Amino acid sequence: MFQMKGEVPPSMSGTCCCSLDGHIYIFGGCDDRSQSNQIYCANLTDGTYLWRRIVPGSGSAPSPRDKLSCWVYNGRIIYFGGYGYKELTDIDSRNRSFIVDEASWVTDVFWGWNNEVHIFDPQQGSWSEAQTRGRAPAPRAAHSSATLGCRGYVFGGRVMETRTNDIHCLDLETWTWSEITPVTTSPVGRSWHSLTAVLDDSLFLFGGLSMDCKPMSDGWLFNVETKTWREVKHPYGNKPRLWHTACPGKDSDVIVFGGSCDYILLTDKGHCNDALVFQMQPYPLFRICEDFIAKNVETCELLRTQLPHLPSKLLKSLLKRVSFYRPFKKQGV
To answer: What is the dihedral of CA 281, 284, 286, 288, to 10 degrees?
Structure first.
């Protein structure tokens, strides 16, 4: 654990986080007062771990929002959607990029959902709004997104009072939207789930909150070429998650961390701090051997005595795997 300093961001929920060129960026979110449109950055490679609030050099930041998503492509961060507020003068009644939440407004300030696409260029420190073509997804929040090649994908989320199961694609070269119609049965509509790019042509969907407010633990693989969904069998059927994070790991694994196992608006006791690892394809022989040694080195004297004789690079890799599996062994997994 690192003690990060500098211009530390305030405690927020619903922020959007990504990694680019060794830096971590967070944008938006909500605290106990309202949504934010500030962006912060920290260099994870120089050993200082200092947060810095970025003041845009040009362009205007998106309006304050939370529960949005982003894609990283061609050295830029592309943000989509979210729930937040706008002043009346900023709402164009001719443009359906913002849907007002009629239950939440104060005088000339309106909250609601949007489907805007905003681009942040870290090199220039600049904001711009993409001029997209095609039929954009309905304004939404608490959806999921993933980047695969030059395309950004969006699945589900909350659209007003509905949790959807539609999937859309934005070509990040031409800025053209298209909706994908699956040829197989789709997962049920949901929000607060995760979508992770795996292999060269697939996206892994996990968890979320269903339309009837049920925390889910199902996993699905979507092939973008064949437009097919396939439910994935996994050992975490008793570990529902929502509002968690997910990232690709080694050998096309997907690692899910944190989140809640309960409907977080009704209870504050369901927070999780365990990591779930999903295997998306058969492991190579080297990975199988590495995992076997890491899981058994502390109980097998032969492995333990031979470990120091390994080449330094291999030894370093194995020690990382040993550290990864140690918490699982303590839990009896």
So the answer is: 50
Residue 332 has pLDDT above 60, yes or no: no
Across all residues in the chain, what is the average pLDDT?
Answer: 92
pLDDT value for 102 = 81
| DSSP-assigned letters across all residues of 299-331 | T-HHHHHHGGGS-HHHHHHHHHHHHHHHHHHHT
Amino acid identity, residue 322? V
Q: Is 51 exposed, middle or buried (0-12, 13-18, 19+ CB in 10 A)?
A: middle
- pLDDT tens, 14-55? 999 999 999 999 999 998 889 999 999 999 998 888 999 999
**Are residues 43 and 96 in contact, defined by beta-carbon separation less than 8 angstroms?**
no
* Cα gap 90→228, rounded to integer Å: 40
Using CB atoms within 10 Å of the CB of residue 144, give its burial: 0 to 12 exposed, 13 to 18 middle, 19+ buried. buried
Position 325 scores a pLDDT of: 82
pLDDT of residue 144: 98
Least confident of 55-59, 179-183, 264-268: 264-268
* Distance from chain centroid for Cα 104: 27
Helices (H), 42-163: none
HSE-CB for 55 with a 13 A CA cutoff: 1
- Rounded Cα distance, 217 and 234, in Å: 9
> Which residue from 273, 189, 212 is spatially nearest to 239, judged by alpha carbons?
273
Q: In one letter, which amino acid is 295?
A: K
